[in-house]
Amino acid sequence: MVQFYFLSIMLNIIVGVILFSSSNNNDYDDDDIEETRPAKRNSKAVKEAIKNDSIFTNETFCLICGIVCVLVAVLKLFLVYHHSAKDCHIPVIGDLLPAVIGIFGGATVVLNYYSKSFADHDLPEFVDTILFRNKKYIGCACVVIAVIHFIVPGLAIL
Asked: What pLDDT, on the 0 to 100 scale, is given for residue 104?
């Protein structure tokens, strides 16, 4: 269905930006910046503006996008998009990769919200190792796969 195709692309891009921007904000440290270099001072101002004024830092928005991304990705596993009636190939990049990265990206955003809001409960160590330490790479993968999915919607391997 075309609606799930569009939702998959948009939510993968949004979740990718959320993950990439949250990983940059968490990794950002004032001690690492040398105040003598003007480029560093300008990048500090830009990062502070993004950090304070971005919708991608709103926790409610991030949680809703993460939940909807996981739901759309699971539904995308069952509702395969074919742009013509003659398609009888096995969809690999066209449907499977965006669905899998949508599940990983959305789950990372939801678990990140869960870990911040319920600090007294600890998540398993493999979640921290796989999802939280690599959320910048998961975010980049979400955006790259969404762009490929948009450019080539029906790419399939025979």
From this structure: 92
